[in-house]
Amino acid sequence: xxxxxxxxxxxxxxxxxxxxxxxxxxxxxxxxxxxxxxxxxxxxxxxxxxxxxxxxxxxxxxxxxxxxxxxxxxxxxxxxxxxxxxxxxxxxxxxxxxx
Length: 99
Fold this sequence. Notes:
This protein is an all-alpha fold. The protein has one domain. The chain has helices at about 1-35, 40-55, 60-70, 75-99. α1 packs across α2 and α3 (about 60-70) packs antiparallel against α4 (about 75-99). The longest helix has about 35 residues, at about 1-35. The radius of gyration is 20 Å and the shape is elongated. The mean pLDDT is about 85.
């Protein structure tokens, strides 16, 4: 019985470690690709939009995203970026509107 509990504990620890490493790699990739918003690669721009979707609603971020919407040639990425801009603008105005 003790051996089974030990093996289960090791398996749980290994799964948690693998999950932590996977989360770190994904987070690192998203940060790395955040610089690639104006890249020529579709997938790098998509990854950068994923990063920006979680970014704080600052004036710089809103202006950057508006520039991206004006620059982007693909309609799908332009729509995604526009949705991010609208979310950021709502977040930025949120405290003002509720006060």
